[in-house]
Amino acid sequence: MRNTLRAVGCEWEYARNWRTKEEAAVLQAAREVARAKRMIFCISNGRSGTATLASFFACLSELSSAHEGKPSFHWVMRWAQFRPKLARDFLLFTKLPAIARQPGRIYVETSHLFGKGFFEPMRDMGITPALVLLRRDHRKVASSLYELGTIPGRTRRGLKWYLAPKDNVLLRLPEWRRMSDYQLCYWHCLEMEARQASYGRLWRARGIPCADLDVEELNRTGGFEGVAAALRLQLSDADADRVGRLVGTRANAKPKGRRRSAADAGNLAAQEREVERLIERGAGEPRPQRQLAHYVRYAVRGL
Fold first, then answer.
1. For the chain, does the N or the C end have fewer beta carbons within 10 angstroms?
2. Apex CA 242: angle with CA 240 and CA 245, to 5°?
3. For the chain, give me the number of helices (H) and strands (E)?
4. Treating both helix axes as pointing N-terminal to C-terminal, what angle do 268-282 and 181-205 enclose, rounded to 10 degrees?
5. Which segments within the chain are labelled E, that is strand?
6. Given a cut of 90, is residue 269 above it in pLDDT?
7. Is residue 242 over pLDDT 60?
């Protein structure tokens, strides 16, 4: 309920702002933030090592690093799925001003939520942050979500932090309501992989820095240094020493939050094949038209 009220409050606040501000001036202020401070965001599924990656970035003295920086994208993420303007206004009036106040000339945030409705409005505003495309084995990610009970499109936490098959997604999943919990987690991994491919292709065509990273590379010497080089970041000797001491460490493992074991989910390979088959079928079907009331009910469930 707290996030429901917060999202509604944001909409009211932004509506008041637009009554007194010219759009051109607001967009210009946002672009000035981008010129003054270089930004790097992460496109990731979640449960993929974003907290660990943030700890590596925190070793660099020339930048500010956050895992899930305040104000958090999750305040409006679920509502923004059916109201993209809310995501844009959140960036313009809330997130970018907060980033401008951070110390340093570079800001890095590894939250997996950026790729769930905020990349497109930032792109449309003409702001082009560098990207880290963070990956982890799909089955490991899906199993982690399953064990935590964070099921995309089904549970409260799944709706609050993740996309749902009913959202404006790249990979449509017909008959998703009959899918098992594990299958919805696996579908989400494929959806975010598709977004990584789409965003990465677009950014590379424009010459914008974009780093591919498998989280396992952080377990070996030189893994993070490759990411830094792709993002055109310089490491001092002291930075490199701090990075070296982090190799092989983990963050945000959440062992106490696991409610069940993926070993109890049945034949995972067969379930994964069914999801892939349904995605192929969904690619050829027309996208259904949804009424606003339908999305509002869905958003309230996740907030």
1. N
2. 110
3. 14, 5
4. 50
5. 38-43, 63-66, 106-109, 130-135, 210-214
6. yes
7. yes
Give just the sign of the alpha carbon dihedral 121, 86, 153, 171: negative
Q: What is the pLDDT of residue 77?
A: 95
The structure tokens listed for 124 are 């449309």
Q: Is the peptide bond before 71 cis (omega within 30 degrees of 0)?
A: yes
User: What is the number of domains present in the chain?
Assistant: 1
CB 39 within 8 A of CB 99: yes
Single pTM value for the model: 0.89
Buried b (16+ CB within 10 A) or exposed e, 162-171: bbbbbbebeb
Of 127, 130, 156, 113, residue with least CA distance to 35 = 127
The three-point CA angle 73-75-78 to 5° equals 90
As a whole number of angstroms, the distance between CA 220 and CA 194 comes to 27
* pLDDT (mean) for 251-272: 81
Give the percent of the chain with pLDDT over 90: 76
> What DSSP string runs through 46-62?
SSSSHHHHHHHHTT-TT
CATH number at residue 21: 3.40.50
- Structural domain that includes position 242: 2-302
